[in-house]
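Reopening this ticket.

The earlier resolution said the output was attached, but the attachment link was broken on my side. Pasting everything inline this time so it's all in one place.
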Amino acid sequence: MNPEHSRPTRTMAAQHTQDRLLVDVIEALAEADRLEPEEVEYTLYEYLNPEILTQLADDEGNTWEFTFAVADHEVTIASDGRLFVDGVLCRTELALQRPSSVYSCG
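Inline output:
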């Protein structure tokens, strides 16, 4: 058997989920700093391996919270789809399950 064919492959859906989560987090951080997302001067990759977000999103049926520091902010993502920046609810229904609802973080 060819080992290349036996490796698990990342699905397009998993990549889309990770991308959407990253966008949600960056947008929430930008709002907290009263910036446009393209004005944020750092990337999440400097603070976090985005693969972690995909693994968490795939962890259906379990309750979890994941908190990490980005720049001078604390970000928390919960298994129920909520996103907090510095303790302020910024998003619900993250790409973990459904389209995101938006709250103002700033």
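Reporter confirms the inline version is readable. The longest helix spans residues 12-32. Confidence is low (pLDDT under 50) at residues 1-8.
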